[in-house]
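User: Just a sanity check before I run the rest of the batch. Below are the structure tokens for the first item. I only need the designed sequence back.
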């Protein structure tokens, strides 16, 4: 009963964003003080004398790094701030710490926290050698084709790339480290504010004891000649970051933001303090390695100033300057890790709602999907499947035989995803174990387990920073466990892991709770969600070491991409949320988190049939494609809308399945190079500045497919922007082409999804309807060759078993297709495992469609060569394009088709 009251209360309060629950910058002590500092320093202009300078005598350089001391000159004393510069992945890294005295009386770990271990553990970054020269005013460091000049007084760092200055740190003198001090100490400058130094006056966090007092860090980073920046998710906003001089800064603080508003800078569930700035010649990545509450101000001019402010931690910063955004992504992802190659099934369609209420309900939805011919791969269980929200239990009266259900689903290769949250109800074996073994997050007294409220009522939270928590978490998912049993088609959804605490300040933990290692929650807040979904990932690996786990997380941080997919949380069933989902997903991709999606249909409320249909037409392009709905919303499985909607939705979902080879190949590329799966136009063509504001259109990987989903109610026309002079083909009406950079108007009806194929691309599809993606494994391919103006095209295809890690042993095919001089060739990358190659011998190319040949051809000879053999294939001409029918070549071999026109 109580739980239902809690749910109703939550639903009631969830109708619109409750801004008053969250601090504005003015209400956040450290943001307030640093912004005040910025205003005062700017006001003083040239007359401002910064208290910070580099002690030239302290500099010590070797082949890999330079170290030294920055001094903060107080009235009567000096604070020492040791710094280190080194080069990681040929990029400039700066770390600044503080030598603290008098802090050893604290029970807390009194060092400044370094988030690098948490965020960089998946990466493979290497250090480079440097050389240096110094005089009494500055130090110059040379590395690769870059250099950095560190000016001692005023302290300022300029980073040069290919001889040109690109980034200046502390050009505006906003560098500020609030040193450790006692409350009675009076060490303030007149240009500083003392707002909330030792107390928090925000109504919900007055109890914050701020045991280490003010500890914030701030720095301005100027990106020269750049007025477009992208990244720092998660915000429900446009893709190109906006100037914040007249608003609050963008905030990075993982919170459960009830029904967030579209186009807002409020914090959300995840935080990635990484952005990319862009101009036609250069791209710059800024990675602010910090896991505490963080705000970013942006002041756009010809050069853009960004002002980064974090509540505590060391200052750790990587500046990546390269020629284009792709190169920046590759460097960033070698620091933080790349997306795990997903299990193939997880790229299929996910059917979810809060809640499918019983095994029979699940069976009913499952059988209707087949009845209506809608492919799907997973059905999801939200929190109601549990016994009183006790995770790892089942509500037995409604779910008497989960293993049996899992087996039934497995007959058509479907999976079940069940939710497991980090709040654990007080008073059953899981919480008892966690509490009695010291594996929960604790109160500031270090002894008392923290109790707060979430779905189950009174709960404790697992401390996934405690290494011992992992082995216990493993047992809950292991083969013998009641919960997961031996079913490898049970996967996991980690929700509410910001963490969400219904009675906590700003809907989350009090900042002065403590974690393993004597760290305050304040220091690691933004990384808690990641530590939790990682624990789940490793527990699933422990269950089946050669099975790629699928974990969906709501909260995330840099590096989350290596172990989880994310979605954008609680949106609503309105057109505005449909629109904003795209820039949100694109922004995550830019920030290295490409496996992203949004609730199709909108979580809160009830979509009109038109909106639902349009949402599917947009949603099939989300790298993570899941329909989801709030417990109070009406049922909206695709057959409920009726005709013509059901058929349109069915065909839309089928299109997703037809294009799975394209999507999987895009993920492969992302897992190798760190590129987004969905790419804004400017990401592919950064030379063209006219593309910098377009965020409702995208390319799918490197395939050449360009999509502009319809997101306007009642649309009869739509416009699409051609980013370059190349010829573009309508993907569905093969005779229709568009050409000429700029806006092109299209007529649309409810069935239209504007999808164009760029001339020069080869798209691989599997066109047969199957009930799930795993049943498509041996289906034949159709190749669509879209010729460019030179009559050439190319494409890539990646195939592996889609479930195991055997690809690491060479069990995969990487195929390059090329069309030139009227020859289509397929070439396999060498060094592949023979056994895997043989297993695909029966997978054929059943059709090759060549679009863009001069349309006066009448007679064609399609000569096929595979290995030693040559034969002639049938062909037809349809609407001016050529179809080579059943050429009988295997996808697992190299071959050629010579078109003699
Ligand atoms: C919040 C999540 O964002 C939503 O998707 C889920 O349905 C509810 N929690 C209930 O678990």
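Assistant: Here's the designed sequence for the first item:
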């Amino acid at each position: 009963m109580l739980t239902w009251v809690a749910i109703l209360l939550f639903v009631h309060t969830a109708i619109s964003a409750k801004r008053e629950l969250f601090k504005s910058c003015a209400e956040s002590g450290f943001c307030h003080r640093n912004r005040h500092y910025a205003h005062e320093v700017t006001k003083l202009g040239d007359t401002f004398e910064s208290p910070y300078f580099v002690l030239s005598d302290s500099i010590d350089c070797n082949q890999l790094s330079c170290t030294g001391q920055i001094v903060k000159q107080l009235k009567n004393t000096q604070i020492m701030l040791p710094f280190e510069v080194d080069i990681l992945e040929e990029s400039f890294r700066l770390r600044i710490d503080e030598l603290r005295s008098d802090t050893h009386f604290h029970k807390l770990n009194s060092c400044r926290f370094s988030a690098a271990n948490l965020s960089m553990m998946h990466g493979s970054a290497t250090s480079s050698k440097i050389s240096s020269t110094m005089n009494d005013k500055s130090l110059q460091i040379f590395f690769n084709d870059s250099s950095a000049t560190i000016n001692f007084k005023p302290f300022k760092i300029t980073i040069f790339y290919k001889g040109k200055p690109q980034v200046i740190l502390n050009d505006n003198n906003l560098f500020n480290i609030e040193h450790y001090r006692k409350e009675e100490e009076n060490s303030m400058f007149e240009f500083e504010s003392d707002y909330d130094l030792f107390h928090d006056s925000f109504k919900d966090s007055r109890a914050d004891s701020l045991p280490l007092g003010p500890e914030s860090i701030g720095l301005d980073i100027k990106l020269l000649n750049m007025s477009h920046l992208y990244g720092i998710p998660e915000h429900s906003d446009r893709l190109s970051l906006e100037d914040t001089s007249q608003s609050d800064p963008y905030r990075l603080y993982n919170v459960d933001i009830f029904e967030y508003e579209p186009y807002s800078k409020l914090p959300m569930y995840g935080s990635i303090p990484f952005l990319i700035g862009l101009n036609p010649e250069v791209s710059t990545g800024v990675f602010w390695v910090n896991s505490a509450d963080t705000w970013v101000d942006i002041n756009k001019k010809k050069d853009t100033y960004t002002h980064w402010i974090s509540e505590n931690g060391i200052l750790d910063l990587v500046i990546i300057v390269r020629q284009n955004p792709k190169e920046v992504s590759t460097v960033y992802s070698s620091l933080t890790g790349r997306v795990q190659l997903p299990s193939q099934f997880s790229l299929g369609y996910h059917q979810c709602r809060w809640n499918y209420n019983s095994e029979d309900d699940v069976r009913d939805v499952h059988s209707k999907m087949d009845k209506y011919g809608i492919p799907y791969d997973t059905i999801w269980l939200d929190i109601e499947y549990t016994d009183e929200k006790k995770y790892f239990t089942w509500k037995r009266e409604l779910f008497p035989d989960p293993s049996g259900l899992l087996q039934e689903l497995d007959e058509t290769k479907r999976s079940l995803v069940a939710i497991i949250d980090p709040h654990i109800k007080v008073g059953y074996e899981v919480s008892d174990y966690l509490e009695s073994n010291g594996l929960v997050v604790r109160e500031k007294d270090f002894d008392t387990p923290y109790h707060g409220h979430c779905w189950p009522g009174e709960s404790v939270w697992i401390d996934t920073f405690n290494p011992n928590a992992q082995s216990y978490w493993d047992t809950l998912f292991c083969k013998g466990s009641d919960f997961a049993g031996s079913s490898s088609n049970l996967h996991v959804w980690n929700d509410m892991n910001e963490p969400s605490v219904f009675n906590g300040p700003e809907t989350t933990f009090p900042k002065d709770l403590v974690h393993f290692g004597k760290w305050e929650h304040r220091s690691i807040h933004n990384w808690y969600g990641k530590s939790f979904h990682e624990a789940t990932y490793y527990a699933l690996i422990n269950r089946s070491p050669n099975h790629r786990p699928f974990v969906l997380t709501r909260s995330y941080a840099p590096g989350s991409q290596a172990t989880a997919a994310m979605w954008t949380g609680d949106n609503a069933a309105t057109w505005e949320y449909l629109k904003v989902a795209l820039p949100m997903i694109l922004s995550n991709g830019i920030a290295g988190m490409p496996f992203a999606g949004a609730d199709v249909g909108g979580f809160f409320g009830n979509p009109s049939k038109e909106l639902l249909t349009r949402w599917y037409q947009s949603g099939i392009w989300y790298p993570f494609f899941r329909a989801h709905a709030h417990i109070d919303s009406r049922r909206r499985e695709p057959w409920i809308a009726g005709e013509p909607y059901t058929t349109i939705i069915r065909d839309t979902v089928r299109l997703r399945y037809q294009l799975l080879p394209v999507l999987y190949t895009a993920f492969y590329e992302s897992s190798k190079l760190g590129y987004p799966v969905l790419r804004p136009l400017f990401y592919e063509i950064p030379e063209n500045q006219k593309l910098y504001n377009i965020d409702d259109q995208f390319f799918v990987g490197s395939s050449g497919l360009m999509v502009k989903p319809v997101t306007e109610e009642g649309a009869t026309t739509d416009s699409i922007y051609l980013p370059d002079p190349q010829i573009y083909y309508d993907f569905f009406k093969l005779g229709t082409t568009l050409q000429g950079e700029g806006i092109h108007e299209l007529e649309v009806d409810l069935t239209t999804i504007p999808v164009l194929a760029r001339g020069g691309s080869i798209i691989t599809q599997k066109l047969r309807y199957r009930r799930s993606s795993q049943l498509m494994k041996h289906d034949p391919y159709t190749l669509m060759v879209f010729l460019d103006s030179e009559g050439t095209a190319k494409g890539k295809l990646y195939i592996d078993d889609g479930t195991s890690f055997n690809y690491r042993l060479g069990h995969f095919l990487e195929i390059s297709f090329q069309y030139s001089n009227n020859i289509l060739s397929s070439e396999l990358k060498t060094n592949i495992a023979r056994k895997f190659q043989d297993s695909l011998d029966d997978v054929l190319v059943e059709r090759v469609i060549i679009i863009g040949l001069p349309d006066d051809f009448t007679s064609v000879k399609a000569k096929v060569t595979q290995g030693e053999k040559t034969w002639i294939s049938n062909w037809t001409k349809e609407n001016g394009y050529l179809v080579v029918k059943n050429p009988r070549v295997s996808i697992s071999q190299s071959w050629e088709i010579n078109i003699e026109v």
